[in-house]
Amino acid sequence: MKRLLLVLAIITSAFVGAIMGILYAVRYIDLGGSYTSIQQRQKSQSVSFRADSISVPKSGFEQAAKLVTPAVVHIRSIYGPGNFGINPLENFNNPHGQSTGSGVIVSDDGFIVTNNHVIEDANTIEIVMNNNQRFFAKLVGRDPTTDLALLKIKAKNLPFVNYGDSDQVFPGEWVLAIGNPFDLNSTVTAGIISARARNIGILQAKNGLQVESFLQTDAAVNPGNSGGALINLKGELIGINSAIATATGSYSGYSFAIPINLAKKIIDDLLEFGQVQRGLLGVRIGDVTAELAEELKLDVVQGVYISSVNKGSAAEDAGILQGDVITAINNHEVSNVSEMQEWVARNRPGQVVDVALRRDKTAKRLKVKLKDFEGNSDSRKKEVSYELGGALFEEINRNELNGLNLDHGVLVKKIEDGVWQKAGVHEGFIVTFVDKVPVESIEDLNRILESKHGAILVEGIYPDGKRATFGFDWE
Length: 475
What we know:
single chain; 25 strands
């Protein structure tokens, strides 16, 4: 009998140990950011998310708005020190500049899409949810050429908006714009798609590679809507609201959104590489017009005219010549520069696109292996620096973090002359937060500090359990 009881005790202990191991793994394995495609994440989470949705409202407008509104956030971009400094009174007496915009939650674990111009040059990015929860976001990456940015907050089980298909959106279709105009949270407006592939000359990238292929709509959009959601009546995200056509600064009839089929490629680039992987043909181009066709005796009146081909470019390698007219990319007809730029920009360096063109009134098809701006034909991840401001950082394993009751942080392994040392930080310090944003890895720390300028607040703990906070200027 005693032997039987002993066996039962051993089996019970093993079972309890297995359960505890599973719970430990669930607690400390961070699934957020371990994937490279937001769309795949959405597909894996959508069933459970939809099952929790509220009852079906009266109309298509109401149903879509009620489903999506909880996933559209208010963004406050703060220029200068945040409102969480060591001395609150000092911050109160020294107000900082700020602006507001909108963002769209696209994953259950906290990835948020917005416009680059909403967060550009911000020292601190604050997220306010539809239910008034507040988070401080880290900037994962941004792309001025498309006016997109990807943010991350530390949260789980969030409502999110599923991607739609902007290629299947046509003029006359009903759409809703959801955002925070004039600081009016969760504002919903309705309109129709007015046009596709609009270029309004609003983006001015330093490298001249801006892509404007906007969805045009007459849904009312005003300052504060930037970065918000343009959705169809299924509640699917088809665009990121970005601009308005106005002489007054407020809505005057038309607004413009980045199509989601372009945006999701940019988002996944920022997620996986920290920067956009832009595939280029390497040509100078212009719209084919009736006048140009007559002047050059072309046999088409729509398409993209090649005025020159760059030396060593993907186009030159493939045999594209000056005077060619591109009429399709990957079997998708292109009638103007905006359409062609969008179809090419959906591809990374090294990917091959099928180019249909007219040359001397003859149809040709060429396979073009795209290159980046520097002539490389492979994707390149943003480099991670382990030495920042005179401090050498090292990752910490989960067991050490668990021993300190932490689930994130990076170790100051070695410290030399620099801002960290001058602030009083010693070797062995574990950085857990910078300006209230959790530091999950050294790559995270790089991303956070890259957007900082001026005073920052660093929180952490020493191996003996002593907590410390440091404030210093970061340049």
